């Protein structure tokens, strides 16, 4: 009942002798975590990220353009797209128009699909999605939206694969 990535984090903390748990609301688990260490309770939102340095592969895993290039170098298909810095917001918009709808807009950095907008169908949605990304990140990715695909989330620790989960959108079968 908790996301796999969070479960792995909590289990590893417990293996290291820490009391660790996620906050639960009436709507399910939140993105708030608690760790008790030396009798003191620490809380934080979102899973902690390793210190990023440009010298390790694991530091680059949340850079979507880096990952896109790696996938392409290894012969894996990726949607057509480019990244744009905040000072090129108008170029990003024009590129989206040129690429054609539907589009996918996302921040260059980050994970868990936060601040991503998919299946953009018009100029108004495109403009709004680009602005949303620039409130979070200084770089936006504009790419073709590919319908009817499957999304998998991988957990990587110290550049080593740990687990993979298939993301299934909320749905009701009945």
Q: Give me the count of strands.
A: 9
Structural class: alpha+beta
Mean pLDDT: 83
Helix content range: 25-40%
Uncertain regions spanning at least 5 consecutive residues: none
For this entry, give a set of tags.
single chain, 174 residues, alpha+beta, three-stranded antiparallel sheet, 4 helices, 9 strands
Description:
With 174 residues, this protein is of the alpha+beta class. The chain has four helices and nine strands. The chain has helices spanning 4-15, 64-73, 89-99, 123-134, and strands at 19-25, 28-37, 40-45, 81-85, 103-107, 117-120, 139-144, 151-157, 160-167. The strands form three sheets. It has a four-stranded antiparallel beta sheet with strand order 4-7-5-6, covered by helices on one side. The chain has a three-stranded antiparallel beta sheet with strand order 1-2-3, covered by helices on one side. It is elongated, with a radius of gyration of 18 Å.
């Amino acid at each position: 009942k908790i996301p796999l990535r969070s479960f792995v984090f909590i289990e590893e903390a417990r293996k290291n002798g820490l009391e660790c748990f996620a906050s639960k609301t009436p709507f399910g688990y939140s993105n708030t975590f608690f760790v008790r260490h030396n009798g003191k309770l620490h809380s934080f939102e979102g899973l902690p990220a390793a210190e990023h340095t440009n010298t390790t592969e694991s530091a680059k895993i949340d850079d979507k353009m880096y990952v896109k290039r790696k996938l392409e170098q290894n012969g894996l298909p990726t949607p057509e797209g480019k990244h744009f810095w905040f000072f090129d917001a108008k170029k990003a918009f024009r590129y989206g128009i040129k690429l054609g709808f539907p589009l996918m807009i996302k921040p260059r950095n980050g994970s868990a699909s936060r601040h991503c907008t998919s299946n953009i169908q018009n100029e108004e949605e495109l403009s709004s999605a680009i602005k949303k990304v620039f409130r979070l990140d200084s770089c936006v990715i504009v790419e073709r939206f590919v319908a009817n695909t499957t999304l998998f989330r991988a957990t990587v620790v110290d550049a080593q694969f740990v687990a993979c989960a298939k993301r299934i959108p909320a749905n009701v079968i009945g």
